[in-house]
Amino acid sequence: MNIRNFCIIAHIDHGKSTLADRMLQCTGAISERDMRNQVLDAMDLERERGITIKASAVSVNYVHSSTKDKFELNFIDTPGHVDFHYEVSRALTACEGAVLVVDATQGVEAQTVANAYMAVEAGLELIPVVNKIDLPSAQPEAVAMEIEQVLGIDAQECIYCSAKTGQGIPELLDAICDRLPPPRGKADALTQALIFDSEYDDYRGVIIYTRIVNGKLKAGDRIRMMGAGRSWQIGEMGKFTPQMTPFKEPLEAGEVGYLVASIKSLEEVNIGDTITLDAHPAAEPLAGYREPQRMVFCDFYPAGETQFETLRDAIERLRLNDASFTFQPHHSEALGFGFRCGFLGMLHMDIIQERLERESKVNLVQTAPTVTFEVLLNTNEVIQITNPADLPDLSRVREIREPIVKVEIITPTENIGDLMKLCDNRRGVYKSQQFLSESRQILDYELPLSEIIYDFYDKLKSITRGYGTMDYSMIGFRTDKLAKMDILVNGMPVDALSVIVHRDKAPTRGRALLAKLKKEIDPHMFEIPLQAAIGGKVIARENIRAMRKNVTAKCYGGDVTRKRKLLEKQKEGKRRMKRIGTVDIPQEAFMAVLDFGE
Amino acid sequence: MPCIWQHHGEPLRADIPALYIHLPFCFHKCHYCDFYSIVDRDSQRHAALVDRILDELAYYRNRSDLPDWRPRTIFVGGGTPTFLEAGELTRLLRGLAMGHASSGPFEEFTVEANPETLTDNIAELLVECGVNRISIGAQSFQPELLKTLERWHEPSSVRRAVKIARAAGITNINLDLIFGIPGQTHRQLEDDLDRILDPELSPTHLSCYSLTYEPNTAMMRRLELGQFKPLDNHTVADFYATVRQRLADAGLKQYEISNWCKPGYHCRHNLAYWTNLNWLGLGPSASSHINGQRWKNVPQLGRYLASSGCPPRIDIEHLPSVARIGERLMLGLRLIDGMPQSIVDSLLNEDASRRSTFDHLIEIGMIERKQGHYRLSEKALFISDTVLAELV
Prior knowledge:
The structure holds two protein chains of two kinds.
Chain A (H helix, E strand, L loop, with lengths): L1 E9 L5 H11 L17 H6 L6 E8 L6 E8 L7 H9 L3 E7 L6 H12 L3 E7 L8 H12 L7 E2 L8 H11 L12 E10 L3 E10 L1 E2 L4 E4 L5 E3 L2 E5 L3 E3 L4 E2 L3 E5 L13 E4 L18 E7 L5 H14 L4 E7 L3 E8 L2 H15 L3 E3 L6 E5 L4 E4 L11 E16 L3 H10 L3 E7 L4 E9 H4 L3 H8 L5 E11 L2 E8 L2 E2 L5 E4 L3 H15 L7 E7 L2 E8 L15 H16 L2 E3 L2 E3 L13
Parallel strand pairs in A: 1-3, 1-4, 4-5, 5-6
Antiparallel strand pairs in A: 2-3, 7-8, 7-16, 8-15, 9-14, 10-11, 10-16, 12-13, 12-15, 17-19, 17-20, 18-19, 21-22, 21-23, 23-25, 23-26, 24-25, 27-28, 27-29, 27-30, 30-31, 32-33
Helix pairs in contact in A: 7-8
Chain B lengths: L3 H5 L9 E6 L1 E2 L11 E2 L3 H19 L11 E6 L7 H13 L9 E6 L6 H9 L4 E7 L3 H6 L7 H13 L3 E8 L6 H12 L7 E6 L7 H7 L8 H17 L3 E4 L2 E3 L6 H7 L4 E4 L4 E4 L2 E5 L3 H6 L6 E6 L2 H12 L6 E2 H8 L3 H12 L3 E4 L2 E4 L1 H4 L2 H6 L3
Parallel strand pairs in B: 1-4, 1-11, 2-3, 4-5, 5-6, 6-7, 7-8
Antiparallel strand pairs in B: 8-10, 9-10, 12-13, 13-14, 15-17, 16-17
Helix pairs in contact in B: 2-3, 4-6, 7-9
């Protein structure tokens, strides 16, 4: 059997999932009738948002259109969003080749470049595909030239196709057979299988996505995870066709499939670990993956009727499904008991929050996201904090360091000036600038992560009218004039609103933050002073004036029930907020910290 | 639907001091009005309604668990009661008076009247039937503001109506005034107050409401359509302060959030609502409250007329005690003198969390203790909903 393992990589929205769907259809893996958009994106949220969150794998049989040779194609769909770099990297190591999809109307984008480099580093053969050639605004040849210019792949190698109409798909499938190398590895060697993804099923437990690198595996085998050191018995093993289909015969070197082994939690399974046979273990594990890096942190607190225990159960349940976020119990002076959670990025955080609320019906308050800071103490000890409220007393602190990322932006040339201004405002350090084509450039900056985690991407999109794209990667920690700014509401410090800021920007940030708070907090029965302070020194203040009028003028016999219900509704609305001291603060206010005052 | 008392098999055995009659007929629907009212000049329907209301009264009168029942107050509202054809109105009022065991005047017998429809004839007829209080909707004396409200009467007709009522011997007169009407200026408000307080009018009782945009009214629809700009909260609050000051200066005592009177002229009927006594409502859409149960008669004239005895009811509520406590506070604290401390304490004794909320409201100066009563502070009067929402 000829096997080709490949993944599809692309910038977000360049039509990767649609291409995968069309390839499934062309190989007959799914019928016309079952064809729905984005077959591979199983999660509701994915289909709603039109993005792929988790990678999926599928095996199909294909007959080469000219040689009539039979092939088994295993392809792996990868997420395109910048937050899910790690998931992309996992998928890559299970393959020998990658189909690089570029939108014929958009051209090369930041994540096209980032993903392509990742694939090349992983030793993958690339097939460039120019997609969406059916659109009137498509410029396939120009895009092919961009690919040549930026990635150094001969424009002649590009395959032009339209995932929407199906044009060019057979050529692409043939090219996958012709140009990609067959899997290396031997079926008679000691077994080594790579775990490249996993998911949780309520009935079957953990489902492991695996690529057999050497040897073979079958249902009933007793396996050992070489990293974790634990043993399990395979209950079921099979392939995605695209539905999970159990196989009796063993999966051999080069093949991709799944296995189920009564594993109760995703935490038991480390992505990147090597599976071997318990009785005849391989001498060494495969080169592993790194731990996913949590870039963004925030707190979840129960609100309204939701109890701490209910929230904990909800988070634990979700964690079974997504081991890439972290959580630990946390206590806030202002908000009580909750959880500090770490995420791959902002989108990941949004998704987790939405899934918690949607799938477990919990009511929660989410604090503004922050990054990890390194704090050098006078004792020369270095500690990491993910919450400004945890910053030790400044007399013990010698230095605060913040994470810095390398940001690569691809933008129309005309927006370069405005983007540079944006980056400079965000304490960016200019690195380089390079022409991509006559009308587009690549701009490189180093920026503090804290300056880009929230609205930087939105700003970039609005400055470039949607044409600009970006990608970022962590380069290390750096010190700066950083300080903790405290926020006092009605005289009480609200730790969940504390933020670590650059001293020069503190007054502006403080004023913007208070203005936002003023907008979010409804007038109360009394006046509410708002203050921003650094080390006890007030640097900005605002006042929320007392409510002036809220009266039911008429309340007679026939009005009693309705008026009572109205008041109960008012009260209910408040119950969904967090009461700090005597002030009711809505969830949105905790995100006020993110207002940069630009 | 069976009668709720029958349904629960509970005897009435209630002291019902207040009787309300709802007459839905009106010759025009004012745009702020959210009462059940219909424009209908068909005298046959008028007669049928009177028959049916008297039938409903007879149903209660005949109940063995209401022996010798006689309300202390009667309030005939609407709609426009005086829009009813004179003969039918007489038949209704006589029937109400005669329908009760012992005779003699009621403590308070109010009929609402529209300034335009009150004639010498009707006024005399009201007096003959035992009516001793009249409530006239003046709303405003500014023609352009009346137009905004879609209220069709000449400002001068209010003075005429008051004169007619007094001539007929009705000295206890209430006027309704609305403030905070879109476009209203402070000067216009002062002018309205000047006119109200003029000796020629000088009513014994005054209901002074800040305009409320009730759901399902034409006013609300027009607001949503952006046909006018509502006054901002600060202006309306200033207006309320002016109203309170001017009326106090003129010797009228404010005894409820929107009600003032000369000494001794409280509206006894409405006090039954605020002190959470029992009351019975007759007619389509009329509400009743007996021993913690609330309901509303069906608000469709046709269905009401088609029934006999106990009419179909909607919005039937039997409040749990915790909600009843909230309701009693919500209503009782609308009174300017507030609620007797002993009553409040006994209500809160059963409810620790409400007690701590109450204490907090005292602490932040929203509720104060005065002369053995708990009451809203002056500040709290302007934001009473926010304060009371804490207690429901």
